[in-house]
């Protein structure tokens, strides 16, 4: 199939990565249909004019239904025809199976949103698509979904992003740093601060996913997606400061051993304290894609087009309980080994 206009079903499509993908597909001339519970209204994205937004809202249709109910799926989607399906929010194989069974043999491409969180922790980095996965991963359902799609012969492509960031991010990732830097607080960072992690701007992710359409080489394949370079935890703090117009050299950082504190169910830090980043060479080659955002540019985009507005609207949590436990402790701030 050519990469010309196609009729595309996006499962979800109104929150963060799904919203950016919706806009990217629409801007390329595809007929986009969303499938969701109808509880989240479409949003205008940063840089999108009022005219563009109104046009997108008018032309992108929504079918209301519950993906977890196989009977409802059959009733609402059984009579529809699509060239491709983007499954953006399946977490377990039980979420994936009803949709995959319905469309198997009926679509040219099934694009599945997985996660780089499936990889087994390794001494060899970066993670590549052929690396072992962790049977204890909280994203195990993603792996099982990939295996099911392969088992039934679905022409699928799986996308494994690292930490997605950018405006409208509902995961408090970069916001965690911005909020503390905004109040000139000391940033608490687990370990020695030199763990490398992979960030991926949401717009780059949307472009990569849209590029899958029309590419036979992508069928049956898995692709990692993130920024071109990884960044250290300490570097993340300084990069966020720079994005805010602050002096990165003036950022105050305290390293701590997370095993020395009982934070209960709260997360003291928004990222896993280990090296976690991937190679994107395969995606760049097969999908004719390359990340446009550097970490610095992407974080500035997120700060100016999201955090500033959220703060003005009074939408910040201002929850520093875990921070204060670390900052007020008598434990010596020692750099931990990797």
From TrEMBL:
Full protein name: 38 kDa ribosome-associated protein
Any GO MF annotation of the entry: UDP-glucose 4-epimerase activity
Organism: Tribonema minus
SUPFAM superfamilies in the cross-refs: NAD(P)-binding Rossmann-fold domains
Pfam families: Epimerase
Domain NAD-dependent epimerase/dehydratase: from-to ranges: 8-225
Superkingdom of source: Eukaryota
InterPro entries according to UniProt: Epimerase_deHydtase, NAD(P)-bd_dom_sf
Signal peptide: none
UniProt GO BP: monosaccharide metabolic process
One CC-aspect GO term: cytosol
UniProt lineage: Eukaryota, Sar, Stramenopiles, Ochrophyta, PX clade
């Amino acid at each position: 199939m050519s990469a010309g206009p196609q009729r595309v079903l996006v499962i979800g499509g109104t929150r963060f990565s799904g919203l950016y993908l919706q806009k990217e597909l629409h801007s390329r001339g595809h007929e986009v249909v969303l499938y969701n519970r109808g509880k989240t209204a479409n949003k205008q994205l940063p840089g999108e004019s009022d005219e563009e937004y109104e046009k997108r809202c008018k032309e992108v249709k929504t079918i209301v239904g519950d993906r977890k109910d196989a009977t409802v799926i059959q009733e609402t989607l059984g009579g529809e025809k699509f060239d491709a399906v983007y499954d953006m929010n399946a977490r377990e194989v039980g979420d994936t199976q009803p949709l995959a069974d319905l469309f198997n043999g009926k679509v040219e491409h099934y694009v599945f949103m997985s996660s780089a969180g499936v990889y087994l922790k390794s001494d060899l980095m970066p993670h590549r698509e052929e690396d072992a996965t962790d049977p204890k991963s909280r994203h195990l359902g993603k792996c099982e979904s990939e295996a099911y799609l392969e088992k039934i012969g679905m022409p699928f492509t799986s996308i494994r992003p690292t930490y997605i960031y950018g405006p409208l991010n509902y995961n408090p990732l970069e916001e965690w740093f911005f909020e503390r830097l905004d109040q000139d607080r000391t940033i608490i960072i687990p370990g020695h601060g030199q763990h490398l992690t992979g960030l991926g701007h949401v717009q780059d992710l949307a472009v990569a996913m849209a590029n899958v359409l029309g590419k036979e080489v992508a069928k049956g394949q898995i692709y990692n997606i993130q920024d071109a370079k990884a960044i250290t935890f300490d570097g993340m703090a300084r990069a966020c400061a720079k994005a805010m117009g602050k002096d990165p050299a003036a950022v105050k950082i305290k390293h701590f051993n997370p095993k020395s504190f009982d934070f209960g169910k709260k997360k003291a830090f928004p990222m896993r304290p280990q090296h976690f980043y991937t190679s994107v060479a395969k995606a760049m080659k097969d999908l004719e894609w390359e990340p446009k955002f550097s970490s610095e540019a992407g974080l500035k985009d997120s700060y100016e087009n999201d955090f500033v507005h959220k703060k003005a609207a009074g939408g910040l949590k201002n929850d520093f309980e875990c921070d204060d436990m670390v900052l007020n402790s008598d434990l010596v701030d020692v750099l931990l080994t990797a």
